[in-house]
Amino acid sequence: xxxxxxxxxxxxxxxxxxxxxxxxxxxxxxxxxxxxxxxxxxxxxxxxxxxxxxxxxxxxxxxxxxxxxxxxxxxxxxxxxxxxxxxxxxxxxxxxxxxxxxxxxxxxxxxxxxxxxxxxxxxxxxxxxxxxxxxxxxxxxxxxxxxxxxxxxxxxxxxxxxxxxxxxxxxxxxxxxxxxxxxxxxxxxxxxxxxxxxxxxxxxxxxxxxxxxxxxxxxxxxxxxxxxxxxxxxxxxxxxxxxxxxxxxxxxxxxxxxxxxxxxxxxxxxxxxxxxxxxxxxxxxxxxxxxxxxxx
Length: 296
Description:
The protein is α+β, with helices and mostly antiparallel strands and about 300 residues long. The chain is built from five helices and twelve strands.
């Protein structure tokens, strides 16, 4: 393995990518992905915007939710500017509004809410799915290598690129399988190397990873795949609620489902469980999804 692609370097690179540089007056600069080409990954912009918002809030008030709207596609090889508005600081809650821009053009709006710790009523009505543990599943890096040659040349690099977040799919991936399936999937994920103990780092990386494998859930009943060039898709909005403490360098289960699609849009939900069965986060996303009509 090349030295720059060791697990430790991959994870350190991700942590650095999701940090933002304070430019003063609640303005921050997000790094571009090293060697990046094409459209910027939505999870990167969400995570950077969250981090920018967190830097303007007292650390005793962790983020408990975020809501983001994607306005236009960004470029992977260009830095992102973040402007934070301090909309509210109350006795228990704070709220921040963030506009992410590239070259003067807004690409994402995000609001985030923060709360100081307090005890309260507690219940959980979400049972962890009964699925095989990650140790019994094939590593996705091996799955991607196997399918890379079948993918369209222009997307092949997505299959072969080393990744700082490892995923292991319970049902397997649908990239090259045209058979319709139920609109639900389960994937274990974690970083490939340990992370610092800073909870903000873990929240940022969970927000980053929450944009993986979610939008594709609404394509499963139709047997269509972006890897085969059968659909075009883009996230429209994305929301995350953080419920319980967690670590993203330990296995988390991402259970996704899609209750509806239509009119060129697909709605997807996700629940993220710790390995001991705690519901640590909930995700919702609507995306544009359109079937590609062959020319001629």
